[in-house]
Write a structure and sequence with these properties.
Elements lengths: L1 E9 L4 E5 L7 E7 L4 E2 L1 E5 L4 E6 L3 E9 L1
Antiparallel strand pairs: 1-7, 2-6, 3-4, 3-7, 5-6
């Protein structure tokens, strides 16, 4: 199991591309706000190296992508 994590600043409703380079579309994505609360996000697996995340809250959010 491999993992990639990154933090970005979102505007509510904004889409961001996260390039994880894990080489698979079979990923699990968790998103957390700056208080470490889990955020419900819309995630689209666009390629074997990237996902698109739409975060419903504004501010810094951490995306954690886990793949096999």
């Amino acid at each position: 199991m491999t993992r990639y994590a990154t933090t970005a600043t979102w505007t509510a409703g904004e889409n961001k591309t996260v390039t994880h380079s894990l080489g698979t579309k079979d990923v699990i994505v968790n998103v957390y706000d700056s208080s470490d609360a889990m955020v419900i996000a819309d995630v689209v697996t666009t390629t074997t190296s990237a996902i698109t995340v739409m975060c419903s809250v504004a501010g810094d959010c951490r995306s954690i992508v886990t793949g096999k």
